[in-house]
Amino acid sequence: MHTAPYLSPEALHAFIQAALAEDVGDGDHSSLAGVPAGARKQARLLVKDEGVLAGVALAELIFAQVDPALQVQVLLPDGSRVKHGDVVLTVEGPARSILTAERLVLNCMQRMSGIATHTAFLNSLLAGTKAKLLDTRKTTPNFRLCEKWAVLIGGGVNHRYGLFDMIILKDNHVDYAGGIRQAIEATHAYLDKLGRRLPIEVETRSLAEVQQVLEVGGIDRIMLDNMAPALLREAVALIAGRFPTEASGGITEHTIAAVAATGVDYISVGALTHSTKSLDLSLKAY
Predict the structure, then answer these.
(1) Going along 54-146, which residue ranges are E strands?
(2) pLDDT tens digit at each of 286 positions of the chain
(3) Cα separation, 258 vs 230, whole angstroms
(4) Which residue in 185, 221, 217, 216 sits closest to 203, CA to CA?
(5) In sequence order, what E strands does 61-207 have?
(6) Rounded CA gap, 269 and 136, in Å?
(7) What is the pTM of this model?
(8) By C-alpha distance, which of 108, 106, 99 is closest to 28?
(9) Are 283 and 105 in contact (CB under 8 A)?
(10) To 10 degrees, the CA torsion angle through 109, 111, 117, 121?
């Protein structure tokens, strides 16, 4: 089971409740109209694609929240590599409830499986390096929980969940603050005033900015933004292990291996969650 602080029972229940409210509203009138109230049926969740499966544990929760009378048998767990024709799970129980849950289960699992598949593929390109693959906040509003969960299932590492659990001083923050030193010093004053401790990361755009961060210190990670591999190597050498490093900015499957070879500790890729093709799945009666 892939776990993270944001995957609390309360958060998962609230997500499913909101998603059902959006989809079902005051009732699944198609099922209420067309399917006998006492009908009990069964269905299989079928794979029509190839990739890495994600969202199975969520699907179990969705079926249970729609109707505790639904009985789910999982045949392939999260993280399984799947191919066309595989059966992920079966569900049996009130026919109306199966139909009401169907689209939410598929919407979540197709998107999550696509993200897990993309994550696993990019992760495979990091073999032989120390780099870890990170997601970003470039997620679908109100679906971040599922998208970040899918990254974990695919073998990636979650970056901060939101604006509240880590401080990243990006280019605009630095420019608005008047410079790197001013931004870092203001951040420490802010945290001291609150009596809080949050990790601090600073985005840099040049070796000169990296040097400024090193001179000020008091941070937890240096982001190296939109730097070519040759410049990344120079930056990593300059930092010399004093702080963890993160490469970011337009990194693709064609460039990620070269970026990883520079010795950075992390590589963040927004495309994991904002530009991923969903895996084709379907729920079929049998």
Answers:
(1) 71-74, 81-82, 87-94, 132-134
(2) 578 999 999 999 999 999 999 999 999 999 999 999 999 999 999 999 999 999 999 999 999 999 999 999 999 999 999 999 999 999 999 999 999 999 999 999 999 999 999 999 999 999 999 999 999 999 999 999 999 999 999 999 999 999 999 999 999 999 999 999 999 999 999 999 999 999 999 999 999 999 999 999 999 999 999 999 999 999 999 999 999 999 999 999 999 999 999 999 999 999 999 999 999 999 999 9
(3) 9
(4) 221
(5) 71-74, 81-82, 87-94, 132-134, 167-169, 200-204
(6) 7
(7) 0.96
(8) 99
(9) yes
(10) -160
Torsion over CA: 238, 240, 242, 248 (sign)? positive
**What are 12's two structure tokens?**
């998962």
Which residues are marked as active site?
103, 138, 170, 203, 225
